[in-house]
Amino acid sequence: MNQGRIWTVVSPTVGLPLLLGSVTVIAILVHTAVLNNTAWFPKYWQGGSAVAAAPAAPAPAAAPAKK
């Protein structure tokens, strides 16, 4: 392990929960920022109307068979 000596300074029973807790807090903050700063997400939660599908183009008429 590259940084293995850190555990001679900080006990793993303290360091690991701090590390994992800080990663969790950062992930929650990033997700909250993304969800609060997008225009589509509040509409999604409110059940915004679905975008109407464009009408399908009529199928081209079959060419007459050659004899």
From TrEMBL:
Record's keyword terms, sorted: Antenna complex, Bacteriochlorophyll, Cell membrane, Chlorophyll, Chromophore, Light-harvesting polypeptide, Magnesium, Membrane, Metal-binding, Transmembrane, Transmembrane helix
Cellular component terms per the entry's GO annotation: plasma membrane; plasma membrane light-harvesting complex
GO MF annotation: an example: metal ion binding
Main location as per UniProt: membrane
Subcellular localization, as worded in the UniProt entry: Cell inner membrane
Membrane topology value: Single-pass type II membrane protein
A Gene Ontology BP annotation from the UniProt entry: photosynthesis, light reaction
SUPFAM superfamilies named among the record's database cross-references: Light-harvesting complex subunits (SSF56918)
Transmembrane segments: 14-35
Domain (Antenna complex alpha/beta subunit): residue spans on this chain: 4-41
Function summary: Antenna complexes are light-harvesting systems, which transfer the excitation energy to the reaction centers.
Protein name, entry field: Light-harvesting protein B-800-850 alpha chain
Taxonomic source organism: Rhodopseudomonas pseudopalustris
Lineage: Bacteria, Pseudomonadati, Pseudomonadota, Alphaproteobacteria, Hyphomicrobiales
